[in-house]
Amino acid sequence: VMQFSKRQNHMRAAMTSGRAVTVAATLLSGVTLASAVAAADWQFIPRVELDAVYDDNYRMTEVRGEETEVFGALANLQLGIRAATPTTVFTLTPQLASAYFPDDDDENSNDALLAARWQYAGQRVNSDVQANYSHETVIRSELPDAAVDGDLGEPVDGQISRITVRNKRDQLRLAPRISFELSERLNLDVTAGYTDVSYDRT
Fold this sequence. Notes:
This protein has 202 residues and is α+β, with helices and mostly antiparallel strands. 21% of the residues lie in helices and 47% in strands.
């Protein structure tokens, strides 16, 4: 009985020691991450863009007599968050975009966009990971606009293939890239891309 008791106490001591090591490792990881966050140079850049808009054929229809005429306001609110260290740069940019047309409620919209990017520059390894998500009205997503890929006042190219349909689109895009310096004249670049798109109405 005594041997069993000693063995049980030893097992309890080992389990306690294991838990202590786990807790210590977790605390150390947290302290390391907190130190890295504290050491980064943080910047917060809010931007607001307001536009008045008039369009006598908002949905670009080719059928005469079915044009949608709108007059109203567009608003874009963006917050740029940037954290930089000597070797890494992380940016996060949430954005809200709204369209308001007092005489055509069906064309009003509220869209949400989020862009993230992480860059690392080492002695022989460089990496760049971009992730973009958007939940927006199809007409806003397909026409030229300052969307996830662009900045406010810097529109990106759009398409007009689906703007005749009142719909919402969810889009997720990932684009990681890593570069290895094998020698002074030789680099190995690895890139990948992933896009997932879905619509409320198919």
